[in-house]
Design goal:
This protein is 26% helix and 20% strand. By secondary structure, the protein is an alpha/beta fold. A hairpin with a 2-residue loop joins β3 and β4.
Length: 422
């Protein structure tokens, strides 16, 4: 097998950001991609999807958005174009159409097998993404026949959804965006609401993400968290980039006709059973929103920021009283269920125990317990914004520095392995 210092798995924005940082350090590497560059943005997104982040926050090592619409939100195709151009501009050594089938220890490094040959490497960066596989609960198996089931990765637009009512399970970013699109298409929509993060799209005259970056919220680090496991499991924010600055929360959806129910807990004898905790879940989201806005207002006051708009608080989430606890799926009212219940990474090819018994990745800021195995793009990897495009910029720079130190130690033990370092 040919030897390379580093194999990067995945040619999305995380893999290409790491490639740029390795190239700046003259570290020999290859980027392996099962499809094309930015493959998931072109093949696994619904038609109307836009970034949750404004264009000005689209930043990677050596790249910052310089277009004419800094406050707009890119479509999935536009994001893919940016990532593809970034890979070309940085001359990233990408091999497309190359699926990694296994990574296993070999000597002081690792053997990386693909469907097109293999390499040995001193280090491997797993940048294949945190959202490879839809995380659908086992209750899906009890859905009565005749009801269409879709995940956000399978959903494209309302035309593919049968006429009739839709149950959207999940109220994070994907769930509320798809629910909104279906409501606007005239579909009766019921939303099964679990834990969620409520935020306004704009606050005091600026995008909420401007505030969160300026006040340092997005840069909060993993080693500053009292409960890191909890921080890494928080759902995505209820945001949309396709509504012209409009806030997309449960109140907005209810106002357009959505019916709110609690978390889907079971399906028995064709009846969907919902938790009665809807009021408490929504009250908790409202409380966390108020705490966030308190943090932003306090920062603005300390910074003596001249903000034209005063502090604002939003009405509590309106929930039905009492919330419905069941729904007969056999009556024909619900024709489709959209499982917006999150994603998980697919690391079945990684022949190393980097996941614990509860299915959580074991790492310290992207550094695993296996010397030379690194992760990129996972929730709260090194900072709160790690899953944002801009998060890959900061994370890749820090992990590349750690990786370079590891390669130096490998080179000291086996000097012939250093041949790829400039």
């Amino acid at each position: 097998m040919p030897h390379v210092c580093v194999v990067v798995v995945g040619a999305g924005h995380c893999g290409l950001a790491m490639s740029r940082c390795l190239a700046e350090r003259s570290i020999d590497h290859v980027v392996l991609e099962r499809g094309e560059v930015a493959n998931s943005w072109r093949t696994e997104r619904w038609d109307s999807l836009r970034l949750l982040t404004p264009n000005w926050l689209t930043r990677l090592p050596g790249y910052a958005y310089g277009g004419a619409d800094p406050d707009g939100y890119m479509s999935a195709d536009e994001v893919a174009d940016v990532i593809e151009a970034y890979g070309a501009d940085t001359a990233a050594p990408v091999r497309t159409g190359t699926t990694v089938t296994s990574v296993r220890p070999a000597g002081r490094g690792y053997a990386v097998e693909t469907d097109d040959g293999g390499w040995t490497a001193d280090a491997v960066v797993v940048a294949s993404g945190a959202c490879n596989v839809a995380s659908v609960p086992a209750v899906r198996e009890a859905v009565p026949p005749g009801i269409t089931s879709l995940t956000p990765a399978e959903y494209r637009n309302p035309d593919q959804v049968p006429e009739g009512g839709v149950l959207v399970v999940g109220a994070s970013a994907s769930g509320v965006q798809i629910a909104d699109e279906l409501i606007r298409d005239g579909r009766p929509v019921t939303i099964a609401v679990g834990e969620h993060v409520r935020v306004p799209r704009r606050y005091r005259g600026a995008d909420i993400l401007w505030w969160m970056e300026a006040a340092g919220v997005l840069d909060e680090r993993y080693d500053q968290m009292d409960d890191l496991v909890r921080a890494r499991s928080i759902p995505s924010m209820q945001l949309a980039g396709s509504l012209g600055g409009e806030t997309l929360d449960l109140n907005a959806l209810s106002g357009r006709g959505a019916r709110l129910v609690g978390r889907l807990s079971a399906i028995r004898d064709g009846r969907a059973l919902f938790s009665g905790s809807l009021p408490n879940v929504c009250a908790l989201a409202d409380l966390k929103l108020a705490r966030l806005l308190d943090t932003l207002d306090a920062w603005a006051a300390r910074s003596e920021l001249d903000v034209p708009e005063p502090p604002e608080r939003f009405p509590p989430t309106a929930v039905p009283s009492p919330p419905p606890l069941d729904l007969d799926l056999r009556r024909g009212e619900i024709r489709t269920i959209v499982w917006a219940t999150g994603y998980r990474p697919d690391l079945s090819w990684l022949g190393l125990p980097v996941v614990n018994a509860r299915g959580r990745l074991i790492h310290e800021g992207g550094v695993t317990r296996f010397p030379g195995i690194y992760l990129m793009g996972m929730p709260f990897l090194r900072r709160r914004k790690s899953t944002l495009i801009d998060g890959a910029r900061a994370d890749s720079q820090e992990l590349a520095a750690h990786l370079a130190t590891h390669l130096d130690s490998v080179a000291r033990e086996a000097p012939h392995h250093a041949a790829g370092r400039g």
